[in-house]
Amino acid sequence: MMSLRAGRHVLSAFKPVNVSSLRRFLHTSKPTSTFAKDLFLGRCNKEKVFPYPDPLNEEQRETLNMLVEPVEKYFVEKVDSAHIDKTAKIPEEVMGGLKELGLFGLLIPEEYGGLGLLNTNYARVCEAFSDASIAVTLMAHQSIGLKGILLLGTEEQKQKYLPRLASGEHMAAFCLTEPSSGSDAASIQTKATLSEDGKHFLLNGSKIWISNGGWADVMTVFARTTHTNDKGTNEILRMYIALAGMQHAGKHLQEVLKYLKNPFGNVEFMTDFLKKRALYALGLKGNLQGIANVSHPQLADSVKKLEENIADFGRISENLLSKFGKNIIEEQFLLKRMADVAINLYGMTAVISRATRSINRGSPSASHEALLVDTICKEKYHANNTLLKEVKSGTKSNGDEQLKKIAEEIFKSGGTVTPHALTV
């Protein structure tokens, strides 16, 4: 009894509590201005993607059009691909035209004599000069050849090398691949040893498959060197600028070139403790990852899938046209599958373009968009492979012939096919 009264006394000492105030309400995050992140939160802001956002503003679009049109015209009127392939040499007058159009400095900032294009603009211009006999020369020059200087070079190095590279006076090459390690940067064996006087480096190793190697004036060479700090001495990977014209390349490169009737870019470059005149490492102490990040590695797998699908689509389209000619219009079942693939390819291109735009601009939703791109491209990639396999293997194995015959019989009998045969 006493305990009950004591309990009541204790309870009476507390003030009444409003139970509703103890509820925990679920609050969603604040609305964002990004389409991709909102999708993860269960919201679909259609106005963010319809109509599809142009990655370029009006000024950038105008500049791009002014550049693309003359480039396309030049390649139609002046470039003879068959002749270049036959002679294994790009004529001097053609190279001169490329220099006048500014195609050697597309990615180099304007302050160094280039055009300073964004990656999106650069990709569009590359599409305009995608002639196989010239595209590799131009793209190897700036996409990888001079990229190390552009990203990791000192201001002094940029002022010294980039203007001549932008004008086309000098050509750049990229020396990574080795006979024993391929393009695996972690397995590179080429060594760079600092001379006793500390004024130059000695390179010892071998590089192969060097695009533009036959005529490059500047080479970005990857080699291992020792680095000592308070934690000890370690071997690290660095990039070196080597002025590698014929007069500086060393006797080994000259020996290799003797065996090539017309050195057309991909050559072997060997050094054997040769002192390289004008060889610099100062400022280029980054690693391969620094260059790899520029190409958006998080999208690389999706782009590769898109490329594979496009290649298969083009090959199978040619086979269908060769087989059926104008009568292809009667093969509606095959055309339906090819149309589905084309739609998927367009969708893959659109999402990759959107994600690339976000990455270029440093958008906070870039990581979300990259994840969406990976998911969508994987799904469409496998769907395209299935559709193209069905087209390639013929129609009998998937029942199209039987459906076609049924539809023809119904039509002859005066009936109709519902639903439409293409949706079966």
From TrEMBL:
It holds the Pfam family Acyl-CoA_dh_M. It catalyses: octadecanoyl-CoA + oxidized [electron-transfer flavoprotein] + H(+) = (2E)-octadecenoyl-CoA + reduced [electron-transfer flavoprotein]; eicosanoyl-CoA + oxidized [electron-transfer flavoprotein] + H(+) = (2E)-eicosenoyl-CoA + reduced [electron-transfer flavoprotein]. One of its GO terms (molecular function) is flavin adenine dinucleotide binding. Residues 297-415 form the ACAD9/ACADV-like C-terminal domain. Residues 173-234 form the Acyl-CoA oxidase/dehydrogenase middle domain. It is found in: Mitochondrion inner membrane. Keywords: FAD, Flavoprotein, Membrane, Mitochondrion, Mitochondrion inner membrane, Oxidoreductase, Phosphoprotein, Transit peptide. The keyword Transmembrane does not apply. Residues 62-169 form the Acyl-CoA dehydrogenase/oxidase N-terminal domain. This is Acyl-CoA dehydrogenase/oxidase N-terminal domain-containing protein. It comes from Pocillopora damicornis.
